[in-house]
Design goal:
With about 140 residues, the chain is mostly helical. Helix content is about 65%, strand content about 10%. The longest helix is centred in the middle third of the chain and has 25 residues. It is globular, with a radius of gyration of 17 Å.
Length: about 140
């Protein structure tokens, strides 16, 4: 049986509100892993000249990574909701965006920035012991 992080609550306007949910260590490590893969793909698209077929795969990897990372941030702490919204927006743009090649770099760099932020958040959470798996 896996140990989970205890639920924490806060009092806002006289009501108890759940501020932190359960996040397993493996989920945080997974969010970091998929974010690093998506960052590498976005950087190759921004700085290199990958083949045309690469972009189809990249948009699905970036969208999946952003969605999984948004869920992980939300599950770690509800105060990270703005980060989750930004990541979901990046995912939607990459999946649904119909733009010319010259218009994509801005969104690729926003995706890189958001995913680097997720890597930093999850790394800090792991180092602080916010997520726990049994030994």
């Amino acid at each position: 049986m896996q140990q989970r992080m205890p639920r924490e609550t806060a009092t806002i306007e006289g009501r108890r509100v759940l501020t932190r949910m359960n996040l397993q260590k493996s989920e945080a490590v997974g969010a970091v892993g998929v974010a690093v893969v998506a960052i590498a793909m976005l950087l190759w698209a921004a700085l290199g000249s990958p083949p045309y077929a690469f972009y189809g795969v990249m948009k699905w990897v970036v969208a999946g990574s952003c969605c999984y990372s948004a869920w992980g941030c939300w599950k770690l702490n509800r105060a990270l909701a703005p980060v989750s919204v930004i990541l979901l927006s990046v995912a939607a743009i990459h999946l649904l965006g119909k733009m010319r090649k010259a218009e994509w770099p801005l969104f690729n760099w926003v995706g890189v920035a958001g995913l680097v932020l997720v890597v930093a958040i999850m790394t800090v959470a792991l180092k602080r012991g916010a997520t726990v798996d049994p030994a």
